[in-house]
Amino acid sequence: MSDAQASTQEGAAAPVAGLPDPAGLPDPADLPERIRRHRRHTLELLTVCALGLVPWTVLLAMTLPSVYEVRQWRMTWVGFDALLMVAMAATALLGWLRHRAVIVSATATAVLLICDAWFDVSLAFGTSGVWLSAVLAACVELPLAFYLIRRVMGMISLAQWPTAKAAADSSGQPAHPDA
């Protein structure tokens, strides 16, 4: 017996196409179009932001001083490393729990490791500490970041993602190119 038949037999009204579900769930027929619309809006937003960063980056390159005295240097670096530690711990915990959110946590940890390597090396440039920073970046931070990215890509490839053909078959309409 299907779920719709079971709910009708229990006295609950079955959802009618085009009308909102009494339980507040979206109409399954509207779902693919809504997903495509959200995807399109997200991609448009990211495109506008990326294009907006071009003039901003050029402006910064032309106007920022090459040398700048920094206040709260220790707090900044300790705070960043604490954030990195929390991200690593969250990734480890979510991994031990076999929770799928480990994908997000591992990705964030990888990004933080890449940022840490970049800042360590670029801010030590011209000092005697640049070599230690470069060795740590090349031998620890970047390999760990790329390992995490590779593992995340492996986990994503195991997921059951609907294909454009499957989406077209389930909705009865041809799939759109932006699906």
Q: Could you walk me through the main structural features you see in this protein, from its secondary elements to its overall organization?
A:
The chain has helices at 3-9, 31-63, 73-96, 102-124, 130-158, 164-171. With 179 residues, it is mostly helical. Helix 3 runs antiparallel to helix 4 (102-124) and helix 4 packs antiparallel against helix 5 (130-158). The radius of gyration is 24 Å and the shape is extended. The two termini are 32 Å apart.
Q: What class do helices, strands and sheet pairing give?
A: mainly alpha
Q: What Rg, in angstroms, do the CA atoms define? A: 24 Å
Mean pLDDT over the residues: 83
Number of helices, counting only DSSP H or I runs of 4 residues or more: 6
Beta-strand percentage? under 5%
Q: Estimate the helix proportion, in percent.
A: 55-70%
- Sequence of secondary-structure elements: HHHHHH
Ends apart, CA distance between termini: 32 Å
Instruction: Provide the low-confidence segments as ranges.
Output: 1-12
- Shape by Cα distribution: extended
